[in-house]
Write a structure and sequence with these properties.
Layout (H helix, E strand, L loop, with lengths): L1 H23 L2 E7 L6 H18 L3 E6 L11 H6 L5 E4 L23 H15 L8 E7 L4 E4 L13 E4 L2 H9 L3 E4 L5 H6 L5 E4 L15 E5 L10 E6 L1 H5 L3 H9 L3 H13 L1 H9 L5 E5 L1 H9 L2 H13 L4 H15 L2
Parallel strand pairs: 1-2, 1-3, 6-7, 6-8, 9-11
Antiparallel strand pairs: 3-10, 4-10, 5-8, 5-9
């Protein structure tokens, strides 16, 4: 009996050790994105975010970042990679899959956005009311925007008529609508393609914020940078999404879900907006480091022409929402009102 008891104790100890090892096994999560490690958004926001999450997880969970599409595929495929569970987390632009997230595009319409904190906070208010169905296949960790697109070009853009005939790279469907309606030639493409597009003459201008430009040496590609005078200094903005696979989230133990939740949504929205505002200035200095480069502020009288020309794009979005059984005009009005609420 003593021998049998010893055997049972040994077996129990072995099982306990195995259970302890299983509990101690670290949860590994893959974070995939399109931009390189030197890009401002990754090095100033998402790498620190990952570090914060990993620290809060206390060794139970670890997120590993794979930049520059290291795990394969193309930028437009990121939303499907995370949806299908190929990766656990992605940071990307919904605009790279045009029309797939159409309600969210309201914040990308020309002259809706003011600055990144205001628009990002507005999205947090808008999201639970209007965006649940659109993002139902994902665990949305954050929807936010960048500081907004200015025109970076080979020739000076100082008035509305200068836009006509210009071939311009853009990241959003609604900006393409706008550019097309004013006689420019929109070219939709992910940001990693801008270098080759300018080099091959596919485009002569780029709709970009300053912050991403140094990562692709835009200061050497174009000569002129044009902003708008007034409360809305940029033509539009692009929405970004930090998404998690729902099953990857569901499998987490409660304490690790709490870690993810505390670093998501409203808990990081202001931080994201402030970060995007903060990194614009240093990036603009990089653009100014080339002596050839010139900076322009388009005067208010011309800005009024730019703003008036936004109506066809807005009407087109409203009509698309109406066809879906939604009140497009009311949704646009609410989005604009929310942005104005947070704009100081």
């Amino acid at each position: 009996m003593r021998k049998r008891f010893s055997t049972l104790c040994a077996a129990a100890a072995a099982m306990a050790a195995l259970a302890g090892a299983a509990q101690a096994q670290q949860i590994e999560l893959k974070f995939h994105t399109l931009i390189p490690p030197v890009a401002n958004p990754l090095k100033t926001m998402w790498l620190p975010w990952v570090e914060q999450v990993n620290k809060a997880a206390g060794g139970k969970m670890k997120i590993t970042v794979y930049p520059s599409m290291q795990l394969g595929g193309t930028p437009p495929q990121l939303v499907d990679q995370v949806k299908d569970g190929v990766v656990d987390i992605v940071w990307t632009l919904p605009g790279y899959t045009p029309g797939r997230f159409p309600v969210s595009e309201v914040f990308e319409l020309p002259f809706v956005h003011t600055e990144p904190v205001a628009t990002t906070l507005a999205i947090q208010d808008f999201q639970p009311k209007y965006l649940k169905d659109e993002w139902k296949d994902y665990r949305v960790l954050l929807l936010h925007v960048h500081a907004g697109s200015l025109i970076m070009s080979k020739k000076p853009i100082t008035k509305f008529s200068d836009m006509k005939g210009l071939s311009i790279r853009t990241a959003t469907r609604t900006m393409s609508w706008y550019l097309d309606s004013i006689g420019a030639q929109p070219v939709d493409a992910p940001v990693p393609e801008v270098v080759q597009m300018v080099a091959r003459g596919v485009v002569s201008a780029l709709a970009l914020p300053y912050e991403i430009a140094p990562a692709f040496k835009v200061q050497t590609l174009v000569d002129h940078f044009s902003e708008l005078e007034g409360r809305q200094p940029r033509l539009n903005t692009s929405m970004f999404c930090l998404l998690m696979n729902p099953n990857s989230y569901a499998k987490l133990p409660p304490d690790m879900k709490k870690v993810i939740d505390s670093h998501s949504g409203r808990n990081i929205a202001r931080q994201a907006g402030e970060n995007w505002a903060r990194i614009e200035g240093p990036a603009k200095k990089v653009m100014a480091s080339e002596a050839k480069n010139q900076f322009h502020v388009i005067p208010a009288a011309e800005v009024a022409k730019f703003a008036a020309a936004a109506k066809p794009a807005k009407d087109r979005w409203i009509a698309e929402m109406n066809r879906k059984g939604l009140d497009g005009a009311a949704m646009l009005k609410e989005a604009e009102s929310l942005v104005a609420k947070y704009t100081h």
